[in-house]
Design brief:
Helix 2 packs parallel to helix 5. The strands form two sheets. The chain has a three-stranded mixed sheet. A two-stranded antiparallel ribbon has the order 4-5. By secondary structure, it is mostly helical. It folds into three domains: about 45 residues, no CATH class; about 210 residues, no CATH class; about 100 residues, no CATH class.
Length: about 375
Amino acid sequence: MLDTLTDWCSSWKLSVNPEKTKVVHFRPQSFNLTSFQFKCSSNDIFITDSYKYLGIWLDDHLTFDKTTKELSKSASRALGAVFAKFISSGGMSYKVFTKLYNSMVEPVLMYGSVIWGTKSYTVINTVQNKACKYFLSVGKSTSNISTRGDMGWLSCLSKQRISCIRLLCKLTRIDQNRKIFKVWRWASRRKKGWNYEVNKTVNLFNVNDEVGNVTLNTKYVMKTVTEKINLLDNDEWYNELFNDRGHQNGNKLRTYRQFKQERNTELYVAMLIPRQHKRVMALFRAGSLPLAIETGRYARPPIPVHNRLCVLCTNNCVETEKHFLLNCSLYDDLRWLLFSECSNYIENFAILDDDQKLVEMMNCPEIQAFLSKSIFNFFMRRKLFLV
Ligand SMILES: [Zn+2]
């Protein structure tokens, strides 16, 4: 074929630029790279491992690893620009931040996800997790589960699945003479690849009937699909929250599990409160506020849990989130104010036990601003006394 091209070029007095001409040997992982020397008009054509076409990197094993890595890099840059605005404008509301993320970062991050989106990619998820943590002003080591849970955002995989199913819907309804339809039909015979994977997702959500029924339009079908994906996203998030295999969720999210069961935007996140209050509240909830229970994990060797004692009072107990918020005598005066506020909105607050108090406080909408401010004040005092 290259010889034919050479002949054609010479009869039309054209030349092929050897600098811009390369060969990609598409093959399964188990195949060796070809050693064939390709030539075109006496120039050697060299082999390369990937090629960018319409913004998608096609690598020699068609893995999309390079595509997602490059998208993640570009989206990180876009996120950096959004965050620069965030800082220079003195912070922004959850609504504005989400809008900017959805219009400036996500289109970059999700570019071509209809093609590569059938599985989860760490490099893609990282960008969204970073955005959540930026907004809450918490560090990298804060749990991804709690930050996304409090922001209430859909996972990247769910967003990818939505775009893949939308394309499948469109293909199912397209004019059968179109090339794209024929290619899709031809590729569908294989027991792997895009069509196979997307159909697996369709089965997972049990939306075969809707997707397959061509009398329903894509927009209508996608409404049902999106609702189901939302529900499953919530279940997946919940399972992750309680997944202790190879994770340290059990340590870090021990308190979070008690009061948070659903992935939804928390009031303290959506409210206009000082950024520092938001930050300390997010850390407290995630079990990442540097109390003894948490910092003891980082000591070398780690301090046994029962020895991570509070050094700020004489109670001689482990400094957990609960001790900090509900019992430590260092904050008695501040707590008195907080508890009287709680009593205004939570029924029988005074007679609840500590676990019930914590759950009620975290879930009572009326006190979220006051609670964030109080936890911030507690923490500031703690800092003062530890120096
Ligand atoms: Zn204490």
